[in-house]
TrEMBL record:
InterPro entries: Cleav_polyA_spec_factor_su5, NUDIX_hydrolase-like_dom_sf. SUPFAM superfamilies: Nudix. Belongs to the Nudix hydrolase family. CPSF5 subfamily. It is found in: Nucleus. Its main location: nucleus. Homodimer. Component of the cleavage factor Im (CFIm) complex. Component of the cleavage factor Im (CFIm) complex that plays a key role in pre-mRNA 3'-processing. It comes from the Eukaryota. Keywords: mRNA processing, Nucleus, RNA-binding. The keyword Nucleus applies. This is Pre-mRNA cleavage factor Im 25 kDa subunit.
């Protein structure tokens, strides 16, 4: 990877490219608790496709927003992932409501899945790192719109979310919040899927400033 790790005991040095520096704080500075489980529907792939068709006919293009959140562990950047049923890994986020902005939707989803207060809006949502498109209801997501596709059915946008030095993460009991090293995720499509496996490359333009508090 082209990522750079900068170890600093206080604050990052002044740089003309501060927008491309991500401050990463130790995992030990965060508190983790649990709350009531979220309802999840048991559905087959056919059920999911049918649900997406119904939503598309009612609301048009389905838009999902997901968060890239980094922490430090063993002096290496780790990505926070939600795990469902021991084998499904997801970035925190989800589908936004009709008329809702990407930022508002992502903050709402983060609060629902990672905060004690679902109305919390204190999330620093940064730039959009990438977008993926689903040409129809059954196919996989692509990091572009195929030229023969005029009306894609779903768009997933991934945003960088910067953490403060400390925060309380309160996670539903039927989800696990994991910190996974970027080196384990890199191009590991089989385990994590194409979006998560591609995140290390999306982050290659950034320098990581690991702050030991």
């Amino acid at each position: 990877m082209g990522d750079q790790i900068v170890i600093n005991n206080s604050h990052r040095e002044t740089s003309s490219d501060q927008g491309f520096v991500i401050d990463i704080y130790p995992l030990s500075g965060y508190y983790f608790g649990s709350k009531d489980p979220l309802p999840f529907k048991e559905e087959t792939l056919a059920d999911r496709a049918q649900r997406m068709k119904s939503n598309y006919h009612a609301h048009g293009l389905r838009t999902c927003v997901e968060a890239v959140i980094l922490v430090e562990l063993f002096k290496h950047p780790h990505l926070l992932l939600l795990q469902l049923k021991n084998f499904i890994f997801k970035l925190p986020g989800g589908r936004i409501r009709p008329g809702e902005s990407d930022i508002e939707g992502l903050k709402r989803k983060l609060s629902r899945k990672l905060s004690v207060n679902e109305g919390e809006t204190d999330w620093e949502v940064g730039e959009c790192l990438g977008m993926w498109w689903r040409p129809d209801f059954e196919t996989l997501l692509y990091p572009y719109v195929p030229p023969n596709v005029k009306t894609p059915k779903e768009c997933t946008k991934v945003y960088l979310v910067r953490l403060p030095v400390s925060r309380r993460f309160i996670v539903p009991k039927n989800l696990k919040l994991l910190a996974v090293p970027l080196c384990q995720i890199h191009e590991n499509h089989k385990t994590y899927g194409p979006i998560i496996a591609g995140i290390p490359q999306l982050l290659s333009k950034f320098s990581f400033n690991i702050i030991n508090t």
